[in-house]
Amino acid sequence: MRYLRLVVVSMLLSPLGSAQAQVSIQFSLPGVQIGVNQERYPRLVQVPGYPVYYDPGARSNYFFYDGMYWVYQGDNWYTSTWYNGPWGMVDRFNVPVFLLRVPVRYYRSPPPYFQGWRRDRPPQWGQHWGGDWERQHQGWDRWNRRQAPRPAPLPSYQRQYSGNRYPAAEQQPVLHNQRYRREPRDPVVRQYYPRVEPARAPEPARGHQGKGQPEPKHGSGQQQGDDRGQGHGK
Known about the structure:
- The protein is an alpha+beta fold.
- It has five helices and nine strands.
- It has a domain of about 140 residues.
- Strands 3-4-5-6-7-8 form a six-stranded antiparallel β-sheet, with no helix packed on it. A three-stranded antiparallel β-sheet has the order 1-2-9, covered by helices on one side.
- The N terminus and C terminus are likely disordered.
């Protein structure tokens, strides 16, 4: 599935205040049902030696890496900035390599084809996904553990959003931008990360005096506009 790029303008009434925030949001439009339902914020534990977290109590292959949640379900990877989606599909050729390196033992719902693979080693993605994938990912399972990046902080602010308080898809990027101040370090993850920017106010039209336009009257008690059009209009 390819991602659709969408720009919307959202007027969000923040639960943290009464002011409305007008922002421009650009994000990937997922809309994918994957059969994973997290009713509340998950318990996330770091995979020892990896910049990745997993949920030991999940019934799915559920991870957190570099500011985003990741799920491996039905031979596909999905991602979201919120713990219960909505989820966007990730092409198998474009999955962050540190997720691929997580050992088999941390997959809480491993698919049948994981059987026989060593639990202390990552899944044999090249064997499973074929020669084209393997040729494009040579050396993916070899890395210097001393140079592994630090794990990203968890978005624990999302604990307060569960049940009826779970935000709609168009609200999620705004809240995430307000409460989670870290952007992804991994260039692959950045492709899926929503960008939220303040909406630009429209520039005021520059007034000019053309033919037939009356000259401003002096001494009328009203502020006089200058030649750049900064007068009072109706």
